[in-house]
Specification:
This protein is α+β, with helices and mostly antiparallel strands. The protein has five helices and five strands. It has a five-stranded antiparallel β-sheet. Strand 3 and strand 4 form a beta hairpin.
Length: 149
Amino acid sequence: MRSGRHDRVTPITVEFFVAPDDETAAQVGPRQRRHGFPAFAPTDFFPDDAVVDLEGLLAGGVSAGWRDVLPMKNDGFTVFEVPSRLCSALTRASSGRLVEVAGEWAELAAVKDGGVTAKTAVEILTRLADLARTAESLGQPLYCWYLAP
């Protein structure tokens, strides 16, 4: 896991998506954007850092982090599974709780790396919670890929 400040010279491309298994998830990415899986694509933040922060804020305690499906190499691309503990917390969270946590996350992210605005954080968390509920209803994991060139 990374920590500290990040150089934001180029935009970060992010997609959270539901897929049946790791093998399938590893095939999704910037060249495979029309995969047909439930997904949403926020931009310009580091989702691996966000997942750790959000798990701590929503589920409490220290985050166990994510599990790599396709580890990042020199190309800046990675795929990871969103922790089930965070997914469970997202599915149970009320809209009020999501707004509250979004504000906390935006403040925390601003200290670390410029982060996201509170408004954007609410949008991301709301969409992520909806996607976690979809993953739960399908009995499939929630994944994320991102490219930070």
